[in-house]
Amino acid sequence: MSGVGVGRQAEALRLFDAHCHLQDRRIAAVAPHLIRTALDCGVQRFAVNGVSEADWHIVKQMGDEYPSIIPCFGLHPWFVAERSPYWFRSLKEFLSATPAASVGEWLK
């Protein structure tokens, strides 16, 4: 396929990163670059999955800042023990304030 680059091939596909953690503090500084690069390569949407109450505000902020990000709020099993007594009310508030959001893992 001479003359056809990755960008050209990606134009024919509708790419969606269905599970990523761009809010992770270990990559937060480079997240804008990662998003821009992925968009340039044809990724159209990102499901950014929160893992605990502590990062839900970052997930929401990223969704507000980047139209390509679908915020997903939830509790990863690794972090369930760290949840507050008010986590479910907080989850409902985030979902109410973010109509396009999804719910990831959670335990009641």
Automatic annotation (TrEMBL):
Organism, scientific name: Zingiber officinale
Protein name per the record: TatD related DNase
GO molecular function terms attached to this record: hydrolase activity, acting on ester bonds
InterPro entries recorded: Metal_Hydrolase (IPR032466), TatD-like (IPR001130)
